[in-house]
Amino acid sequence: MLRTPVVLITGASGEIGHGLITSLSADRDRHIITLDLKSLDPGLAKLVHEEIIGSILDGNLLERILSEYEVDMVFHLAALLSTRSEFTPMTAHQVNVEGTMNVLEFAQKQGESHGRRVTFLYPSSIAAYGLPDVDTKARVGKVTENEWTKPTTMYGCNKLYCEHMGRYYAKRYKQLAAEPLAGKVDFRSLRFPGLISAVTVPSGGTSDYAPEMIHAAAEGKPYACFVRPDTRIPFMTMPDGVDALLRLAAAPKASLNHTVYNVGAFNPSAEEIRQIVLRAFPGAQITYKVDEKRQGIVDAWPADVDDSAARNDWGYAPRYDLERAFSEYLIPMIRERYRT
Ligand code: SER
Hints:
By secondary structure, the chain is an alpha/beta fold.
């Protein structure tokens, strides 16, 4: 039992969790507990105080965590991504919405119990947007947080709704009760673009064509890209994604004018990514085999995001533009990963 404040990471064994645990654990005074259905890589497991194997849908398990720990920060990363969610929409809703409600309620109870605000970090997504057609997508270019929020996927609907739920917990929770109860959960959300990691590969997303292309080339495997060459959405590297989460978590509350922030770093077309990958791995075999249905999902996502609110309010500043992402992060680290 640890009655000192701890950080809870749900979905910790996923791609974001991988980078986040490594960064967070650099602060030795910060104890981390994790909750995931899957176990952590052994290298990561030794960086956390307790690794709990289980589900965010298990109320009894959340009660146990509540009774044992004082959680004052939550990174709620557990989710089914966009492609997977289209095959199992009911499960997606359970995990992405009911699971998030459980974790929000858990954070509320934590705040009520120890009396401090619980900072709640929630990765939302460009999937929260829905552009009606490719002409509109090309015409509007960068979108701001309040435009075009008509998601076309189960995952996007889930993310957008949970942004609203988070705002509700932070500002209006039980607003008719005799005693004020809102404000225990300090909800902060980022709408991530596609994330590209050199050390892990995604599963079940629709922006996966970019990381899949890069990793396949490094491994010497042929790859057929499932979207058209001209497809364009924003991306960022995983280290910048993790850094953005940590910066938003650390930002003074008074500086935050919004609960949800766009973040982006570069927005190459699929063909531009292919060309960079071919320069780095000249023998790579990258072709196109367009999956019209997955293409439809990506076509509804914006070509770019306006992240000026994040830059102004809490100093968002990605380290890697497209060139540096490849030359200084992706290519050297991926070569290392697949070195035989
Ligand atoms: N990368 C995610 C996906 O493709 C979008 O948030 O589902």
